[in-house]
Amino acid sequence: MTKIAVFGAGTWGIALARLLAANGRDVTVWSAIPAELKSLAETRRHPNLPGMELPAGMHYTADIAEACTGRDILLFAVPSPFVRATAKKAAPHIAEGQIIVDVAKGVEDKTLMTMSEIIEDELAKAHRTARVVALSGPTHAEEVARDMPTLIVAASNDADAAKTVQKVFNTPSFRVYTNADRRGTELGGAIKNVIALAVGIALGLGYGDNAKAALITRGSAELTRLGLAMGCRPETFAGLSGMGDLIVTCTSMHSRNLHAGMLIGRGMDAADAKKEVGQVVEGINALPAACRLAARYKVEMPIVQAVAAILDGRMAARDALNALMTRDLKQE
Question: Is the CB of residue 307 less than 8 Å from the CB of residue 289?
Fold first, then answer.
């Protein structure tokens, strides 16, 4: 039986843990918060995933050494700001050549590393290497937790590791593709959250479907320009982890980034919007790095810059979006 440890007891980690356990995998959930684990073990429910029941055979631990030992796959599902700290804590206990799957979406502001690169960086400090796969795509936890049809991409330059993850995670309701462009896959997962903030802001201002479609389409163009400048494959951004993830995050009622953007468009500041959403808003975390990447690679990203101006308080939301409409006329 395939043994998997899931780091993180948020909605995405628990939705995947349930999916894996329900399909015959031996699953252990690790969290740094013992009370969180106690609640999951006793109730077999997650407060933010109504209607989902966890299989009785799942295990829970707050001991990271125990979680790392004897596992076929380690699944990193902590929010992006905690990936480095978790990887650092786990690194001394991770076996050489371990398959690690990351599902957190973001880019670290200080280093401009993707989440998989952060994990590899912390392992290198502990004189270890691993086979790291990014698992990303249009995947809201609320739907995966209910076995609703979902497609996702396992991306790695290690083809065998990607295929292993594909086989282990694939179910009749959860179809997994492979991709060799890990950086492009992760970039799509991070930048689409910033575009979703822009869409939410537009909706909060009372704009309609035309504005939404325009921001999604032009946001995709910005993401693709950046990805190409960073050496990624263009087809990645037309696929599940690019356009697919962008569409779902910019249109779904489950999207935290869309919700936060709508609150900001209605006049709330970013800090209060995050509190109101009540869960991690990854677009706000990714925004500084997105701006720095645009500057480093000399890529024009006006939507990303507009969101930054709004959240920094340099421009009112309506003025920033109006500025996008009055830029110099161009060919598409």
Answer: no
Q: What is the side-by-side order of every strand in the sheet holding 73-76?
A: 59-61, 26-30, 3-7, 73-76, 98-102, 130-136, 150-155, 174-179
Determine the pLDDT at residue 50. Answer: 92
Residues 192 and 186: beta-carbon distance below 8 Å: no
User: Phi/psi zone of residue 97: left (φ > 0), alpha (ψ -120 to 50 degrees), beta?
Assistant: left
* Residue 310 contacts residue 260 (beta carbons within 8 Å): no
Residue 23, beta-bridge partner list: none
Q: Tell me how far apart the alpha carbons of residues 101 and 185 are, in angstroms, rounded to a whole number.
A: 13
Supply the pTM of this predicted model: 0.94
Q: What is the pLDDT of residues 24-47, one digit of tens each?
A: 999 999 999 999 999 999 999 999
Give Cα 265 to chain centroid, integer Å: 23
Give the DSSP letter string of 29-76. Answer: EE-S-HHHHHHHHHH---TTSTT----TT-EEES-HHHHHTT-SEEEE
Which pLDDT value is given to residue 280? 84
Distance CA 209, CA 108 (A): 32
Task: Enumerate the active-site residues.
Answer: 192
